[in-house]
Amino acid sequence: MASAANDYDVELTGLLGELVAIPSFSGEEGAVQDRICRWFVDHGIDVDIEEADGGLQNVVVTIEGDGDGPVLWIGGHCDTVGIASGWTRVPHASKIEDNRLYGLGSMDMKGGLAAAMYAVRELSERSGEWAGKVIFAALADEEAYSRGANAFVRKERGIDAAVMCEPHFHDVVIGAMGKINLRVEVKGRSAHGSRPEEGVNAVTEAAKLLVAIDGLERFSHPDFGRASHCVLNMTSGDGRYEIRVPDHAAFVVNWHFMPGETVESALETLRNLADGLNSRAQFAITVGEPRYESFMLDKDDGFVAQFAESYRRIIGKEPDLRFGRGVSDANIFAGRAGIPTLLFGPDGANMHAGDEWVDLDQLHLARRTYLDFALRFLKSKNESTMK
Ligand SMILES: [Zn+2]
């Protein structure tokens, strides 16, 4: 038995090395997705290619167990950020040193994705041991606009729980902050610059709102602290020198929010501030893409409890269930589409930086945890429905 597990480990490391060696910057995932498709087909598992915006695609695999049961999603994104400075190794050469696999995307998150692929393959081979459905997806564009995840959740699939295989090994993330960009357009009225009282200066009116935004007292969550926001930029005019009262200005506020706050409440807050100015200018406030709602799972949720049980069994300690401060496709799944989602996968170091690596022990432990959890989740729900 031990040698079988070792074979799996060797094969999984090999697959990860291959995936890392294929460049897949956001929006250019085609080649790595081809490889993922081929791998499934080689193992007798059917693959669907689903369209996403901008000509992008998601690779989707659905396998069925023995009879009706819950639907579990597992997977993640297959794109990477660009090549950061500070690489002392070749970013797409996937080199193993000291039980670490180095390469761009090794940690974020081809490690988790490869481990999930192996878990799906084993579940497919053992389909008589569980009930329901497992859906895997290799999503495009997470590091940019999450166009892959947004396309994926547009279709209703009845997913009961999702494991996003992002690099969170010691800290299992069960909730995350939200982040949106609020674009404010300010419309004034032009007049000759020597008679400013005859116009409505969009820039000075925008400045009044900016000062009000700066002074906002934000919501504070008892466990996760205070939400924050930051004005990113401001534009006005077309760069020409003109003695004219500017009739247009625009700025973008990057708005981070906690569970308990919503996109609608953010819009309402800014609209109320603008209304309170009693300005003669008009303010139009909209939400731009990418857009990430916040989410928070209950620690006592059955899904979380069952995952924690598998984590204890395979990893041998209590999982540290955390709230994350970064956004990911999990915000789209959980925050936007309402799919209970947690983030767990092999970790390493230097993500989005030079010499990124993933820990190979964690890679193999993650695969075993995914499998143990899937068998537990897909069986226990089935058993409880039989009562
Ligand atoms: Zn990631």
TrEMBL record:
<dbReference type="InterPro" id="IPR050072">
    <property type="entry name" value="Peptidase_M20A"/>
</dbReference>
<keyword id="KW-0479">Metal-binding</keyword>
<comment type="similarity">
    <text>Belongs to the peptidase M20A family.</text>
</comment>
<dbReference type="InterPro" id="IPR036264">
    <property type="entry name" value="Bact_exopeptidase_dim_dom"/>
</dbReference>
<keyword id="KW-0378">Hydrolase</keyword>
<feature type="domain" description="Peptidase M20 dimerisation">
    <location>
        <begin position="175"/>
        <end position="275"/>
    </location>
</feature>
<keyword id="KW-0862">Zinc</keyword>
<dbReference type="Pfam" id="PF01546">
    <property type="entry name" value="Peptidase_M20"/>
</dbReference>
<dbReference type="Pfam" id="PF07687">
    <property type="entry name" value="M20_dimer"/>
</dbReference>
<dbReference type="InterPro" id="IPR011650">
    <property type="entry name" value="Peptidase_M20_dimer"/>
</dbReference>
<protein>
    <submittedName>
        <fullName>M20 family metallopeptidase</fullName>
    </submittedName>
</protein>
<dbReference type="InterPro" id="IPR002933">
    <property type="entry name" value="Peptidase_M20"/>
</dbReference>
